[in-house]
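Much of what follows relies on a compact textual record of a protein's fold. Think of the row as the fold of the chain written in a discrete alphabet. An example makes this concrete, so a full record is given next.


***
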Amino acid sequence: MRKPVIYTVGHSNHSIDFFLDLLQSFAINCVVDVRSVPASSYNPQFNREPLSAFLRAHDLGYIHFGREFGARHREPELLDSEGRVDFEKVQGTAAFRSGVMKLRKGLEEGYRLALMCSEAEPFDCHRFAMVSAVLIREGFEVLHILRDKTVKANSELEEQLLKKYEKSIPRIDPWPSLFAPDITREEQVAMAYRLRNRDIGYSPYKKEEERL
């Protein structure tokens, strides 16, 4: 049986017409906005009200999942020891789990969904490092739409993740020992996701660029 497919996309600084073209290239009929704050001071065409109205005018749906999948949190219980949002803690919340269920229901109802955030490059965005990581475990296929109208599979981004952090995670050793402990690829990927969280996670105590 084919896995249910979820797309992701970044609005970046695209014109609204180019963004629509990106969506239509993959027959997307509903955008799921995963920004905590659905507004852009640099690209106001992607503020919630004008964006949702524009999409509706072109027969596309819009829904804001900031509560479910947003990555800007201030609750102490969702932060790590350095005051940064801990993606794994967010993934364990009832709101996040509800979001996954809603996506599944939407696909069953015939929607073709794209999770939208601001970054053009999914590798730099929580839609990959926080949301897609769980969707893969839940049996979805995740495809990331790029600005050149191609897609990158989540597995390709995971390979990029492993390469980026290869010096920081243990290697798989065919002859594990006390000095070279046994580790699976799944464990390597989980470690790499945590390292990515460290690098891109939002901190309410620091001034950051507009994202998430």
